[in-house]
Amino acid sequence: MNEHEQIGQPRRRIEGARKVTGQAKYAAEYNVPDLLYGYIVNSTITRGRITAIDEAAARSVAGVVEIFHHERRSKLPGFDVIYSDMDAPPGSPFRPLYDANIRFNGQPIALVVAETFEAARYAASLLNIHYEEESFDVDLLTNLARARKPSKGLATLIKPLPPGPRGDFETAYAQADARFEGHFHHGSQHHNPLELFATTTVYEGDGKLTIYDKTQGTTNSQLYVSNLFGLSFRDVRVIAPFVGGGFGSGLRPQYQLVLCVMAALQLRRNVRVVMDRAQMFTFGHRPETIQHTRFGATADGKLTAINHVALAETSRFEDYNEVVVNHANMLYPADNVALDYKLVPLDRFTPLDMRAPGGSTGMLAIETTMDQLADQLGIDPLEFRLRNYAERDVSADKPYSSKELRECYRQGAERFGWSERKPTAEVNRRGNRLVGHGMSSGIWDVIALPGKASAEFTADGKLIVSSAVTDNGQGTYTVMTQIAADELGLPLEAVSFQYGDSRHPLSPIQGGSYTTAVIGSAIKAACRALRSKLFKLAQIMDGFPLGDALPEDVRFVDGAIVLKKDPFIRVSLTDVIAFNHGKSVTASKSNIPNIFRLKQYTRAAHAASFVEVEVDEQLGIINVTRAVTAVAAGAIMNPHTARSQILGGMVWGISMALHEETLLDVNLGKYINTDLGEYHLPVHADIHDLDVIFVEEHDDVINELGAKGIGEIGVISMAPAIVNAVYNATGKLVQVFPIKVGDLL
Amino acid sequence: MNNFNYTKAESIDQAVSAVATQSEGQFIAGGTNLIDLWKYDLTHPEMLVDLNGLSELKAISELPDGGLRLGALVSNNATAYHPLVQERYPLLSRTILAGATAQIRNSATNGGNLLQRTRCYYFYDAASPCNKRNPGSGCPAITGHNRLHAILGESEHCIAVYPSDMSVALAALEATVRVTGPEGAREIPIADFHRLPGAEPARDNTLGAGELITSIDLPSTGFADHHSYLKLRDRNSYAFALVSVATGLEIEGGRIRNARIALGGVAHKPWRVPAAEAILVDKAPTPEAFAEAADLLLAGATGYGHNDFKIELARRAIIRNGMMALDPSTQRPGAQPSL
Question: Which residues form a coiled coil (chain B) (predicted)?
Fold first, then answer.
């Protein structure tokens, strides 16, 4: 009845109307008084030193207030640890404006601050920078000999390095009846959320700052700024109520934050710094990665040997790592396995988690390789996966906490009409267009982290729950409100979720698909503590309306505490507050995952995608005409926002397979298609019939909500399914992504 | 602020003299390319002469010879949706609608469309060397990413391509560009309007200093019965052509009487080879016939690595588009391949 009245219901975004009517304000839209505008200047060389900066022409522009660079900056700390943020990989984090050294093309080297944005931008174009250039290496392909093991650090706890070998891969591979060897490559990709990175810093005086920042972690930015500038943690408040997309780009504080705060502190003024679109290509990105696979199977379709090696770019100063090669043996229980993951340090900026980091890269190679083996063996790709279905995770020798992948396969195949698929050898055409069907599995590890929330019941009958967590646009605001409403038996309208503000209880950065689990569980815990306090008050109210009822004897329904055995006996929550002399009741709670219990299981969300493509036989033009993705991700909090998230993931997968790549000119050492005209994402005309299924899955191990998270899982299975469908249509396997016009001629 | 002078032109003559007497004077109409170039720090006008008040340039009118005059200031969308254009020159209408986005086409004008700068990643990046922007600095596209770049008519100085879709149809239709300059008015056949880069890649066209496009005149032959525009690109909308083909045919008794084929996305200007059209005359419109034409159109084509595929893609596109032209009703929106 009241239990789960909101959870599981399709609810529209609470803030939806505000967003589509322009009332939702983003970091660059806080028009505080007396605002100064900063414009960032970036290095045009790839490696070397700044020898001189000639400011004269820039300073002569009317309205210019100050120019910051490595020789004109406030004091910055000298220790790496101080620059560390919640998503910092092992190494030495980049320090904006720290010294004259240029480490990558597009490095921020100066900030021009002026009374208007236009004056700052114009003056920035007049800043004359002199460099001493050094030779550089940005090319992954010609530097593979330098590949080495990644360093270990805090990041490798959440993103574990590959497990050691099992069995004897080389012997098993040599003895396999069917073998496939794949060599895959994709270039860098940049997140490109629509909202540009921006910070508005309000100088409050007395060392206090209020900062509107585009970030996926208000606490993360707060920590970073207070560490860098030696401010008290409490004096720095970071606010990000609306975030126009993140996709991982906001998991680390970006350089506009440092420059903006530096200017505000030094000038004692309010300052705003906004990046332009080209600058959005000057920091973290999905790393260019080369992958080698060798899988072997028996004639009856049992996978016996798995070898998966990934070689990825990183910077010279940090070892960014992601989980690329670990998933094949989690999904398919072969006994002979050899995995390797190595990094090649280059003169490029450190990569950064980008939607389904690692998983989408690795599964593209794994699932394409699986289809090639199935094709060799003459087994339907879905049947091949079923013959190798892992009831248990042999790679870690653990059971799954829950796994409804088989049901994803079944429901997805049925909805799609997979039984109509023709073998690759048979031609399936519509006019000049070849039709192909492909499928792929998807997997994403469930991450557990501690989180904190507070809850308050007010005299006017409202529940206020709070967390510092952000909402990057996927519906966190709405889902958290639903969770809180259910815990106290209230309608959505009676609940107010305060978030996106570092003043609220601490939240980890919003990434890895764990926010619903981590913050949702914390809100549930805080609301439960609040319930308990409200009940205790009700127990001692005048006349003892609830008699000798124990907590388990009551329910919270419609704003009242109600006896389970006699619903006519009830105490309204507002009466409880009145009894409390009109003072609201508050509770705060941390949710600490039971790591010992969790560690006994492999915990993952699963998916299966089924895709139809049409490929023009002579011209090689590809259209994804329809696709179905079936997802098993535990309990789905809000099927409406969840469906949107999976649809977005499917579009992302189409983009990975067919469109998206940042082109690196290895001679100039820079990315060259740094605008949304030439950095191709799919447009509406590229997106046709997409369908989403949520498969029922119960999991009482992962967390109290039974929710696995859905931010990444929608992306992962889509790109390999497209590659497999193109192969099914044409008999051609493309291993360099994205597949381009011309690859199939 | 990056200060500049601005004046709203009252007449064609005043506009021409205002630009001709200023060293860095430029006309502005829709501004869809100029403002981009300015923001990217690639052009620095000191005087902007706003043409948008010149109502005499905003009409589409019939010509006595049965042709049509497209005013230079008519927007691309208004042109594409004009009943006379749709009826007599559907090839032009479809071609315009395959370009850019609805928003850009609403702002962009016919004259401005002709004057789009060539596309190249390196040209659009002020920090990269580029012979077009900075003569003698080199062409990084030749050894770099040249997927978008020219396979025909390029030079050792520049391999950029001209991006306009509309101009490809205008080339096939043999339009005439009418201009007025300090020396008076003149007419430039569309084939002579854009130029190949040669040793002077900075110049995209043959307009003289201060010359203003006043109209684009279409001759009476519109190929309304048999025509097609095919645009092959990296996504289905809002991307420049890798290869595009505009084909117009006149067919009598199953034989081609008159043929026009123009290519886009392959050169510094729309690409036509009269011999390739002549060879089609009196032939039945078959893939084999169009393949012969394709060989002549693409004679001497050169790839630079990433764009090698364009040579074969263009050949196949010419053949397909010839067949698509036979029955325009089978064509799909966005100039995507059909049949």
Answer: none
Whether B298 is in a domain gets the answer yes
Q: How many domains does chain B have?
A: 1
The 10 Å Cβ neighbour count of residue B159 is: 26
Tokens 């006008």 belong to which residue? B45
Q: Domains in chain A, start-ordered, CATH in brackets?
A: 32-135+194-245+250-281 (3.90.1170.50), 143-189+285-447+599-737 (3.30.365.10), 449-592 (3.30.365.10)
| C-alpha span between B53 and A409 (Å, rounded) | 63
Burial A544-575 (b: 16+ CB within 10 A, else e): eebeebeeeebbbbbbbbbbeeeeebbbebbb
What pLDDT, in 10s, does the model give residues A340-375? Answer: 999 999 999 999 999 999 999 999 999 999 999 999
Give the residue from B36, B123, B133 showing the smallest Cα distance to A672. B123
**DSSP secondary structure letters along A403-437:** --HHHHHHHHHHHHTGGGPPPTTS--EETTEEEEE
Interface of B with A in 35-74 (CB under 8 A): 41
Query: Has residue B230 been placed in a domain?
Result: yes
Decide if B309 and A686 are in contact by the 8 Å CB cutoff.
no
Is there a contact between B219 and B65 (Cβ–Cβ < 8 Å)?
Answer: yes
For B306, the domain range is 226-330
How many contacts does A have with B, using Cβ atoms within 8 A?
Answer: 95
ipTM entry: 0.96
Can you point out the beta strands (E) in A187-300?
198-205, 208-213, 236-239, 270-274, 289-297
Query: Does residue B247 lie in a domain region?
Result: yes
Name the pTM for this structure: 0.97
CATH number of residue B283's parent domain: 3.30.390.50
Give tens-digit pLDDT for B217-271: 999 999 999 999 999 999 999 999 999 999 999 999 999 999 999 999 999 999 9
Closest residue of chain A to B313, computed from CA coordinates: A619
